[in-house]
Design goal:
mainly alpha
Length: 408
Amino acid sequence: MRITGKGKAAMRRAILLLALAVSAPVQAGPYDSAFQEFLNRKVVPEAKRAGVSDAVLARELAGLTPATDLPGLGRPDRPEAPPEINFQAEFRPPAGYFSDSQFDALVAGGRRLLATHEKTLDAIERRYGVPRRIILAVWARESGYGAARIPHDAVRVLATRAFMGSQRRAFFFSELIDSLKILQTGEIPRARLKSSWGGAMGQPQFLPSSYLKYAVDFDGDGRRDIWDSPSDTMASIAHYLQRHGWVSGRDWGYEVIVPAGISCSREGPDRRQPFADFVREGIVRVREKPFPAHELPLPGNILMPAGRYGPAFLATENFYVLKAYNESDVYALFVGHLADRYGNNTGFVAPWRPVKHVSRGAVRDLQLRLERAGHDVGGADGLIGFKTRRSIGRAQEAAGLPATCWID
């Protein structure tokens, strides 16, 4: 009997579904049947449209079950829950993220790696224009230079979150398809496609979409191996930062002294001006260091992560490139500060002074009050970002109080 093109396609699909079905576990969990239907009806068609072959799908999805022990899951038969925030939890001020003992350990390890990989880092810097100390600091923050345990099967994690995650199922569905596209390339076998419980993979903690866009085969072995190749890992981090706008020749920022006459409410990347203008207003670097001459005509902005209760900085646009890796002022500051400490391993000059302990709920209540008074706090999320800090400062000034840009 002659089988038409449509018939061949139907037969291939039937064989694929049979492969998935016969490999199902003998002792099925409560969601396994619905999970198989999810794979067959949603994942397989979308993956095939993305160029993943029947053979790869049959091999990689056969016997797959949901990882129901992951945190942050809901029920697949219920809609996603709105984002949950524990407003009873204590807000953790920036000082809690900067431990000298942690930095000392990371600096020691980083210095060894800077020496070990000197020639490779020379080549990476030439290609991407990102300083080696920044590359190493991101690597340290993401996986402790590769020492962190990354034990999860990325496909299973992403499939589970796409199927029954409490939030962002569509996002994880897209990442699942991208993980299958990675397997389609044949570069990395499934057994090595390891991730965190959130689906971020390898030593630089790339999601599959970032892997496809930014991972680099720098050692020339034909694979973009961010799990076991230091060269590929470092180059991939540099490529990511370059593609997100890293400005070659500029640093991330500088610790400074902001005179009392300059309001902390002037903080923020939307208040940029040339470094030279800040200098004319009286802002100086700590330890009486001058700013590099090439920075003076270039833009920067005031950054005061704890308002007047902690160190102050002039940040360049590269600080916000670091935030593209992880959307957090504290993350970017950690990376930048660690990068600086590879040199002389000295901490911040200004201390992180004690601040009032408050819950995220108390922060949110304050944000709502500020919004009602006409301030832009960047969203009432219980976190104190730069818009909330400067709104606090403006409200303090309007009340005739000294502006601290923090909860007093």
